[in-house]
Structures are given as structure tokens and as C-alpha cells.
Design goal:
homodimer; alpha/beta; Thiol Ester Dehydrase, Chain A; 8-stranded mixed beta sheet; 6-stranded antiparallel beta sheet; globular
């Protein structure tokens, strides 16, 4: 068990506390603010909600959290000390004096400063080598980036240990070997902020329009590849040097007329093209394109599940497509009630495939579950009904995989109501690619009261609709495989 | 059926062609480049791979694609004409002359220009009202943003119709009512590009370090909320005005010393705070935080599935956690072979829940499938083995849901080998939250040859390991529910 001291609570200190605690460290907090404990616990609540499930492997048991009246008490036994006090050099200098009077000489002191250079923090200290800048990004409990800025005063051992600890709590140490005001990332944020202020002031765009320009455009691109890799792919086979020759010091005349730009020498072009080759030259451009597209699709679909941003746009587009795709929203809209109901018509998305090169098994159930949702909507168990406290829970599922299907293939699901009386709903889904049967899904659901979480009868109109479908489908031959158990002979 | 003319192929024209074609429009291309057809077909191949599966509803049947030797021929019957010729005003002017000599007077002519203002394109034209800027982002077939820039010469009807068509092909028209060089988004890209050139030139950071600063930091944030909403949330309950008072015209002294910044008057603060309130004031900050975290987790997990960017960092972190979490990678590492094998220890992620407020049914199968993958690895069917052409495909699955579980809850899966001889692998998974049984999964898999996609015997070491586990587990009582069918009495 290891111990971290958090000097200065608030949103940033709280985020650091969460990173350490949820990765098994004991955390000792010192902050004169009487609200510090409340503030840190609020951040912790958010962190506990989101961080432990971020990965696919459980984190260790949480460490212990304690609050201390003095810096002296807080730094006792601490291996890492994170300073997140206000951005004033005189305050920081005072805190560092107190820290170093009491902490272990081999403890690492990281500063969350977004503006000061590490040399400014080390200046005048007896043991400057233990002080580094470790600049995090909000929300600290989820964003992996740490700008680790060091000076020649920091011994290699301290730098290596800092990287190790940052990595151990699930973050990425971006080691900047040359210090500069505001490090790297915030210089970009500053440039964008300044441009945004002009656009709003000049009435070109509102804050909402600017935010949409970002999140529907380059923001999504930058979530997976940065500036240079993005342009590398855009430049295509001709490569980074060609891209730069084409666009030069400004991406296009005359946008930079007011700005100070570096002289665009051959040396600068070679420097950038060479670094870009070293960064990503091992991946062919065609493959970079596919990686980019896989990432964009995956992220937009993740946003779609939250009905937010670019994903919400796509959901709206889907909604407008339903009719033409043959999907209905009520029993009355079904053209021929005697036949299984079309409950899904889609193309297998890129993020539904696995290492075997085909649609992965859990996505068959994802598709069947979406078909069940559609059938629920059709019988009247829609968003409003669910918001009022009634829904169906799946009790049992039996899936048989009959044939493979791949990303980009069109699939359809047709659904039969085997039984629908009282609390029970027994469904039979068949998934097709054209005439090719891919899989069957047999599902037993129970109507529940969402308050008691127990089974309860559905509203009358739902049972009526369900019985109507069940009776219409009862005249069809029983589906092959219905009621089968695994391992039972056909 | 509607028709679009694409004037100028290449990556941008090809992306437009794909957007229209895959949304059911006929597309007529004109480009003097003899390589245009090849280039457009390459973009189309990427688009067909990624776009149709982006949403959850099938797109209409593809329109027809044709290539034409003249602009005259291409624009015949076109309702939308998209110009993506080189960024030289004299070339564009010449093309517009030819376009307008032959196109319908009520067709809309959109320009992909990233730099020119619409008035510069409209200047001197007989019918300026049909010309708008419709600036897309690469890859055009996936990125939703279109900067739609108009002038007073554009009638309301043209603007409305342009928005309607852009929306109909699944994109987002960001209507900029006041024109400016480079519109909005590229002004930000330009500011970041300029700053990046300085950082590389001055040896502060390499292209790779800059890209990492972006994609592990603000890039992911901006994929879901833009600049202003991000700062609104960071500012907390005190609101946007407080945030601005705190940070002022520069995010922190002295980063902007070389730059021209707007005077930071009360009017500007009120303007921005007021717009931000209008944009997102209806969502409480606490809810904004949760939305942000849901989005970040969903996107990072999507990147993790592709082992890329911030998701790849998390995968590496997971790997380092396996041992402490009690997970093993081979039969020899299993402490007590007579007991079910621990094949998963995790926390339910935020993106695994649904409208019923609990873990959604397909994620039970996702978890069981990951446990099957772990068991495959343990018996020797690992990444290398699969790369060499052997694997297991699931034939049948039977899941019983016994109890609910929620995001943030720790879950474990224990796995028994019921039968493992020859090509068959019969598994029984039990999912627990502590001692509480949540679900059982019974799975029949077949070993396959990935080249023939048919069942085939596994390698000897795999069968040996499987038999070893099956024999050890055979002495345990048969699990309750094994071999059961849906609807069968207990």
C-alpha cells in the first residue's frame, strides 16, 4: 500500500485523490477550505460512478481517505505529493517551503500548475530535484493526459519513478523535456479560446455554433488522432511532405495575416515530415484510413447510445429512415399481421465484429434486444409507458448461430409472438441476410413494475395488442428449434 | 429519386459522392482528371465499409453513379451541384460560369471551399442566389459537419432547401449568417496549426508528443462538448460568468503576449455568458458532468475495442491489473483446478446499462463472451493460435437472468467446462456480484478452421487442457439449470 498527499482540494485535487484512491492508494488531503471535504467527496462520487468500469479488469480495493489540518500531517509517509493550490507563484512557493520541511526527501512533489514552468517552482528550494510539473486535465479521474515537465535539476530516477506512478494510476505521462509557459496542451486551448472570443465578439458565431463546429467536426477526429496524424491521413499516399508543401505555413491564405508564424523553411518541413514518419510511417495510409474510420464509427455509436452530439444527429437521421426501411411503431401500422413482424433492418456496424472477422456473438443479442424493444414499442410499451413505471425484463434467452455475417452486410430481424398472456411475453426472432437465416433468438420476458422491480400485469392495451399478435402468429407452423435445449438432439 | 452532380472528384468530391449515393441519390461526376474514377471509387469503398452501419436503420438502396466528360452533361437534372475544384478563385469562377450556363436555375450549387467567402463566388454571376458555401470535413462520408455559409443574395427558400438536403444525407448544416475568411472551424485549425509549428520548430515537442497531448486530452473532450460547454462544466455551479472572470482574456497570464486579443469588456463577458446560458442553461451542471462522463467512458471504451488511443492506454492498464484481480492466462496458473475458473473480474461500465436502469441483456452475453475468450486463452487458444487459423465459434447460447446489477457494481464470472472433447466445447458461466448469482450462461462452441470456416479438431495441446478441466469439473454437482430449455418446467 502506498500513500499520496493531496495539497489543495477542489475539482483538480479531488480528481487526483480519486485517481489514487480508486487505484488502491491511501490518500491524505490538506486544504484550509472548510468546504474541501464536501468538494472532494463530490468529485469522488463522480469518479466512483465512471472510472472503475472504464476498463475490463477490476481495480484493487479502494485505499483510505483522510483529511488533515496541516500540511505537515498530510505529507507524512507520502510517496507522491500533488500540489493543486491557486495559480500564484508566491502561494506555491510558500506551500513548497512547508512541504519540503516535512516530507520525505525521496517523495515526488507534482504540481498541477497549468502555467508555471517547473524551474519557477524549483527556484530557491533546497531540494529542487523532487519537484516536477504534473499537469492534469479535467475530469482528472477520466482524462489520461498528464504533462510531466522536468528540468535538469530532476534526477533521472525521479523522472522514471514519476512516469511509473502516473502510469500505475492509469494515466499517460507526456514527458516534456523543455519547459515553456503553459506547457503544450494549454497553448492550443489558449489559441482556440482567443479565436473563439473574436468570433463571438464580431458576431460571426454564437457559443453554441462554435461548440457545434468543434464537436461535429475536428473534435471527434482529434479524440483518436491528433493534428499531424489527421493531416498525414488527409494527405494520402503522397505523404506528409506533400501535404505541407500544399498548405504551407498557413492552411490557406489569408487566415494568418494578423499572426506571427514561423518561417516555412525546408528545414522545418523536413523536421515535421521526418517526425511524422517516425510517429506513424510504419502504418500504411490505407490502414490509417480504416483505423480512423473504425474509431470514428465506434465513438459516434457510443455517443448515439447516449443520444448526444454526433450520435444524436445520427439517431435523428435513423428516425427519419424508419418508414422507408419498412419499420412500424404500432400494431395498426403492420401491413399483414399474419406474418412475423419486421423488427429490424440495418447494416452490421464496424464495431460489431471481432477477432474471428465476423459479427461477434453478443451483438446478435444486441440486435435481438433491439428487436424486442421495437416489438415492445409496437404493442404500446414505449418510452412514455416505461417512464410511467412499466416495462419488460428478459428472464431467459436461447440463441442458435446458423451462419456468419460481416460488417457492412444488411440484416433484418423478423419476430413472432409465441405467447403473450398475463405477465409473460415469449418471442421468437429470426435474423436474416437476404434469404440466408443467420440466427434464431428465443426469449422469455416478464412484465415488471419498475418501482418494486417485481413481475406485475401489463396495462390492458399492451396485453390486448400482444394477444392479437400471438393469435395471428399461432396459425403459422412452429419454428424449427423452438423450446430446444443446448445439447438436446434435433 | 434525386440527382446530385459532383464537380471535382478527389477525396472531398468522392466523400460527397458517397454521402449522396449511399442515401439513395443518383450521382453524376465530372472531373477532367483521368484518375478521378479510380479515386472516387477508393473513397466509396471506404464509405461503403463504414457509413451504412453507422446508424441503426438501413439506408435506402444505393443510387446510380456515372462519370461524365463535361460539366454540361453532369449537371443535367441535378438538384444539388457540389463544386470541389482546386482552391483558386479564377478556376472556381470559370467553373461557375459553365455550371450556370447548363444547370437548372433552381438547383443549389454548394462549394466545398475552405477559404473563400460565398460573396467571392457569387460575385459577377447572373444567378448568385443559387450559390452557397457548403464546407465539409474529411472524411466527408462520416463527419457530420457542414459549414453552410450564405449571403443576403441567397433567398430564404434556397437556404431552407440547402439545410433540408444536407440533413437528408445525414449531415449537420451549421448555418453561418455572416461570412468570414475560412469560415469558423478552419480558423481554429489554423490557430492550432500555427502554434504546433512553433512548438516543433522550437524543439519543445515532437509531432507525436503534440498528437498525444491532443488525443489523450482535449481532443476527447471536444468530441462531445465544444469549448464553451467544456468550460461551463469546469466552472461548476458558479456558472460561465464566474469562469470567465477567473480566466479573463487569456486562460492564464502570460500565454498570449504575442497575440492580438479582444478587449475583455463587461459587454463581451455578458455576451458569452448569455449565449452559454441559452445554449446549455437548461441542463444543471451536475447533470452536464454525468453526461460528459458517460460520453467520455463510452468513447474511450469504443477506442479500447480498437486498441487505439486512450482506449489502448486503458487496455495496457487492464493487463497490468490481471494478476491482482485473480485472473490467469494458462491452466498451470490455476490455483485449484477442481473449482470453476475465475474468468472475469470487473465493474459494470456506464455504457452497459439501459432504459430500465440496469445492465442490459446483451452485455450479459458480452461478459460471458469475454469469459469464453479468457477460457480459450487459458487452454491455449490465444491470439497467436487464432492468427494461425484455429478458433472457436459459438453455436448455441442459453442465458438465464436471475438478478439485476447496475453500473459501478463489481461482478465476477466463474466458468466450468461441462464437456471438452473433439471439436466441441461446452461451457457453463455463472455471473456473481459478491455471493449474489446474477445470471448463468450455457454455451456450446465448435472448434473451426478459420480458412474453411468449418468445424475441425483443435490442436492437441488445446484438447489436452480442455479435457483436463472437464475431468476436474466433472466431480462437481451438475449446475442447476444445465441443459434446460425455455419454457420447460424446473
Amino acid at each position: 500500500m502506498t500513500t499520496a498527499a493531496i495539497i489543495g482540494g477542489g475539482v483538480i485535487g479531488g480528481g487526483w485523490a480519486a485517481r489514487f484512491l480508486l487505484n488502491g492508494w491511501d490518500v491524505r488531503v490538506s486544504d484550509p477550505d472548510p468546504e474541501a471535504e464536501r468538494k472532494i467527496n463530490e468529485v469522488l462520487a463522480n469518479a466512483r460512478r465512471s472510472l472503475p468500469g472504464l476498463g475490463n479488469v477490476a481495480l484493487p480495493p479502494e485505499g483510505s481517505l483522510s483529511f488533515h489540518g496541516s500540511i505537515k500531517e498530510a505529507v507524512e509517509g507520502a510517496e507522491w505529493i500533488q500540489e493543486s493550490v491557486p495559480e500564484r507563484l508566491d502561494i506555491k512557493q510558500k506551500v513548497y517551503g512547508e512541504l519540503q520541511a516535512h516530507c520525505a526527501p525521496d517523495a515526488i512533489i507534482g504540481s498541477s500548475t497549468s502555467g508555471f514552468k517547473p524551474s519557477e517552482l524549483q527556484n530557491g528550494r533546497e531540494n529542487p530535484g523532487q519537484i516536477v510539473v504534473a499537469h492534469p486535465f479535467n475530469p482528472v479521474y477520466l482524462m489520461p493526459l498528464i504533462e510531466l515537465v522536468t528540468t535538469p535539476a530532476n534526477p533521472t530516477g525521479v523522472i522514471d519513478r514519476a512516469k511509473e506512478i502516473i502510469t500505475a494510476i492509469g494515466m499517460f505521462p507526456l514527458h516534456l523535456k523543455k519547459e515553456i509557459d503553459a506547457h503544450v496542451a494549454d497553448r492550443f486551448l489558449e489559441a482556440v479560446w482567443r479565436e473563439a472570443l473574436w468570433l463571438v465578439k464580431d458576431g460571426i458565431a454564437t457559443t453554441e455554433e462554435i461548440d457545434n463546429a468543434i464537436r461535429y467536426g475536428f473534435g471527434i477526429r482529434w479524440a483518436q488522432m491528433g493534428l499531424f496524424d489527421t493531416y498525414r491521413v488527409a494527405g494520402g499516399e503522397a505523404g506528409m511532405k506533400h501535404f505541407m508543401a500544399q498548405f504551407g505555413p498557413c492552411l490557406s491564405w489569408p487566415w494568418t495575416k494578423l499572426m506571427d508564424v514561423p518561417e516555412f523553411t525546408d528545414e522545418l518541413v523536413d523536421l515535421i515530415a521526418g517526425q511524422s514518419d517516425e510517429q506513424s510511417g510504419h502504418i500504411p495510409i490505407r490502414e490509417m484510413e480504416r483505423i480512423r474510420d473504425d474509431n470514428l464509427v465506434g465513438m459516434m455509436r457510443a455517443l448515439g447510445a447516449n443520444d448526444w452530439g454526433a450520435g444524436a444527429l445520427q439517431n435523428k437521421h435513423d428516425l427519419g429512415r424508419e418508414g422507408e426501411a419498412g419499420l412500424v411503431r404500432s400494431v395498426d401500422e403492420i401491413a399483414d399481421i399474419s406474418q412475423p413482424v419486421l423488427t429490424q433492418s440495418r447494416v452490421v456496424p464496424l464495431d460489431w465484429t471481432d477477432y474471428n472477422g465476423h459479427m461477434t456473438e453478443s451483438r446478435y443479442l444486441d440486435a435481438f434486444a433491439q428487436s424486442t424493444d421495437r416489438l415492445m414499442m409496437i404493442i404500446g410499451c414505449d418510452t412514455d409507458y416505461i417512464a410511467n413505471g412499466g416495462s419488460y425484463f428478459t428472464a431467459e434467452t436461447h440463441i442458435r448461430h446458423i451462419d456468419e455475417v460481416h460488417a457492412g452486410d444488411a440484416i433484418q430481424v423478423k419476430t413472432r409472438v409465441i405467447m403473450g398472456a398475463g405477465k409473460k411475453m415469449h418471442l421468437w426472432h429470426e435474423m436474416y441476410a437476404g434469404d440466408r437465416l443467420l440466427a434464431t433468438g428465443e426469449h422469455m420476458l416478464l412484465h415488471v413494475d419498475l418501482k418494486t422491480r417485481r413481475s406485475a400485469p401489463p396495462a390492458a392495451h399492451i396485453e390486448t395488442n400482444l394477444v392479437k399478435l400471438a393469435e395471428a402468429h399461432a396459425v403459422l407452423d412452429a419454428p424449427e428449434g423452438l423450446g430446444r435445449a443446448i445439447g438436446a438432439p434435433r
